[in-house]
Amino acid sequence: MKMKRKDRIVLKTAGAMLVLLLFFFAQGAIVVITGIEGIPSALIRGAVIWGLVIITLANSIIRYKGILKLGFRSAEKGAAKRMLYFSPLLLIALSPFTAGINSNGGAALILANLFLTLGIGMAEEIFFRGIICGLWLERGVGKAMIISSVLFGFSHLLNIAGGAELGETVLQICFALVYGMVFALIFAESGSLLPCVLLHALHDFCSFISGEASAQFEIFLGAVQFIVLLVYFLYLFRITARKREPAMKGR
């Protein structure tokens, strides 16, 4: 008896999650076990994650003769304008700089963090949007958005393996859940993974190299970021829903 199409999608989703979590657990566990910090830590973690990216891209090239299936294509014409040129996400990404820039490690640490965050942006967007969201889009944007975003949010539990505190991790999960919903809508609206990769990497990079602020300021900044993100999500949801209405009426 042939496996049902939905069962195949579920199996592929589970397989993608397993592969991603194994690599991300490995990169976090290595630095915790060895006690490596600073530039070596960023480089080792980045190397593990970039290894996953390279393997995934190579697999796509071999199986599908390219990387279009993962979402590496030009965005739909006019998509950036409809999505306000991603200005709310740019604002959120750059907002940690209100606390200054941490230049203690010099240019070498900044470059090491750039290497790491580009890898994180590539890997997480390929798997959560390019693969998982892409698999479920044929069953509706809403379902694809929810499934990929919930998995994206809870994947941040692995931050504990990298030494993060439980309370901090829970907040990251909540923020990542909404962030993932925004990225899913951007992917569905633009048809391209590239904006998601670049915005994701920029957000992580700015967070990694920003200066330290007081706990009160971080709570305030986090609240402002969440409000901006939520409003932007509602806007994106509205324009994608409006775009789907003619297709639904034509059925």
What features would you describe in this structure?
This protein is mainly α and 251 residues long. 76% of the residues lie in helices and 0% in strands. It has helices at 5-34, 38-64, 79-82, 87-94, 106-136, 141-154, 166-190, 194-209, 215-249. The chain starts with a helix and ends with a helix. The model has no long low-confidence stretch (mean pLDDT 91).
Task: Name some characteristics of this structure.
251 residues; mainly alpha; 9 helices; globular; single chain
What structural class do the secondary elements suggest?
mainly alpha
| β-sheet strand percentage | under 5%
Low-confidence stretches: none
The count of helical stretches stands at 9
Helical content band: over 70%
Principal-axis shape? globular
Series of secondary-structure elements, N-terminal to C-terminal: HHHHHHHHH
Mean pLDDT over all positions:
91
Oligomer: single chain
Span between termini: 31 Å
- Counted beta strands: 0
Task: Draw up the topology in text.
Blueprint (H helix, E strand, L loop, with lengths): L4 H30 L3 H27 L14 H4 L4 H8 L11 H31 L4 H14 L11 H25 L3 H16 L5 H35 L2
Helix pairs in contact: 1-2, 1-5, 2-5, 4-8, 5-6, 5-7, 5-8, 6-7, 7-9
